[in-house]
Amino acid sequence: MRGCMRGLLGVVLVSGGLGCLPVSDFGDGSGTTGTTGSGEGMSVTSNVGVTGTGGVTGEGTGSTSSGSSTGSMPTTAEPTCGGFECASDLPLECDTLAQECPEGQKCAPIIPDGGGAWNSSRCVPVLGMGAPGDACTAESVADGLDSCAEGVMCWGVDKEGNGTCVAMCTGTPDAPLCPEPISCTISAEGFLNLCIPACDPLLQDCDEGEACYPINDGFTCAPDDSGDVGKANDPCDFVNVCDPGLLCGDPAFVGAGCPMGSMGCCTPFCGFPDGACPNPDQECVQWFDPAMLPEGDPLLDIGACGVPS
């Protein structure tokens, strides 16, 4: 697309088209998801964040904004680790695709430095047998400790530490695999690899309580934390505080309607080329590069309201 916006999941949708950088960052791991309408959600970061209050990527900007946490879950810095060796004492960097950890452990993305994005991996104890689609709990998102089985991760974790098990991709970095028809989303410098279904930002075909947000080269569902904010031109530091059907765009792209000094502002998706936009300086800008997709591909109908570059 010609005008990049703040994305959601900082991921690469392997089978998708080409577009701007986005992320499913949900937090720094030590914190939790903000309450609805609190303005907490996925933060602006150059890497994908953690389920809860995470990060979103603006293409080429590398700008980061972290949200305040409303609570905390136990971490492995505390004395108990469920009867297992604490994750903080285990070696760093296993292969999340290969899952080659010793029996009773799994390779999980982690946040070892207390930052706002996954940036490493580690063998951690398997604390449960949750399968993809099962409800799960996360003892510590930052340390990869949850109730999901090997090769599965607790995703979309709320402030109580509850989420849903999502399968991690298998295969190799060059050929990651997920069950059909789901594509593998790769983010956080390759440490986060998840089988997350794609969605349509124009149809907003996600489950109740979620919205369809941009991911590097595609779109995925994530918790909707907009509440009383998130309308067109509302400031946004987090991608998922925008209402369903809107995204958190860079101020220069959103244009004159975005208040000065904002990290980003919400702006609607639109049907390209004739979709209506709320601001007089905006047009419906095509999201995907038409040179990268075949003629007639429905992805070419996706646009976003912004100032053309």
Structure description:
1% of the residues lie in helices and 28% in strands. By secondary structure, the protein is mainly beta. Mean pLDDT is 74; it is low at 1-85. It has one helix and 19 strands. The longest helix has 4 residues, at 251-254. It has one helix at residues 251-254; strands spanning 9-13, 43-44, 55-56, 105-110, 120-125, 135-140, 145-146, 152-155, 162-167, 170-172, 175-177, 184-187, 192-195, 210-215, 218-223, 246-249, 265-271, 283-286, 302-306. A hairpin with a 4-residue loop joins strand 12 and strand 13 (192-195). It has a domain at 239-306. It is globular, with a radius of gyration of 18 Å. It has a four-stranded antiparallel beta sheet, with no helix packed on it. A four-stranded antiparallel beta sheet has the order 16-17-19-18. A three-stranded antiparallel beta sheet has the order 1-12-13, with no helix packed on it.
